[in-house]
Amino acid sequence: MTLLTVENLTVSFPGRSGVVNAIEDVSLSVSPGEILGMVGESGAGKSMTGAAIIGLIEPPGRITKGEIRLEGSRIDTLPPEAMRRIRGRKIGAIFQDPLTSLNPVLTVGEQLIETIQTHLKLSKAEARTRAIDWLRRVGIPAPEARIDTYPHQYSGGMRQRVVIALALCAEPQLVIADEPTTALDVSVQAQIIALLRKLARETGVAVVLVTHDMGVIAETADRVAVMYSGRIVEIGTVTEVLTAPKHPYTAGLMASIPRIGPRPDILSQIDGAMPRPNARPEGCAFGPRCPHRMEICSQQRPELSGTKTKSVACHLTEGVPA
Length: 322
Ligand code: SF4
Ligand code: MG
Prior knowledge:
By secondary structure, the protein is α/β, with parallel strands linked by helices.
């Protein structure tokens, strides 16, 4: 069974010389309990994809093509009020900076209790017990006492734990986590990633994990979608994609994690910058940076194709040469 299906999703913005597609033809699916990583450089469209799923594209941006379905029902066409109910109840969110997700003038407990009571039919006392439980589950020490304190009284890592509790406390089926550890100290990052993975396994919640860090993907995700310049260029199980990357861009990203990359030589081959959405080259958008570019690459855009477990958008039919 599929929980989330995204098909041919395109998000466009009005530009100075016409409409610009921030993301184009993004298709993916997520099953219950699965962690799908979305990886790529800043500006590749990962966050935009996450924002579209959760109904938070900032106007004048809008979905101009495609569909988003949760349990088979369209959610991209819902009115804002209905989407607001889905957010929180069915889809939770965790963002990079915990301070933007937490209200500074309410205690942590007030925020958790309000979210729990908005979405689940529980009395205040029951919601408070549930909130303390969640604080314990995310590793907040002495939750009975901490529940009545304010977000600024927590460290960055502890605040992100609270944000995770807030995203999960209404028992959503899906969580969008956008760079959940990027703002944290390196030592804390691994703890938060481990916590997310543990809670996903325990609760069965599906996670779309947006990150620029292939190392985080390797440690957390079941499947991974690699994005480049608004499109998915490779998608598949983490095992397949990480052990045998088929797209030259994926191979380059892999090589940038020393503890995983088998071929450190590839890193130097992705010098250069991703094109702006209004200046994508003809054919393959990765072409100008690709060490394997062929004639066809600048003429024809490679479409995603492959098997059920792995697809690649590249004209190299055999993948990156060894
Ligand atoms: Fe490189 Fe061509 Fe594949 Fe694009 S399609 S990644 S340019 S080989
Ligand atoms: Mg982003």
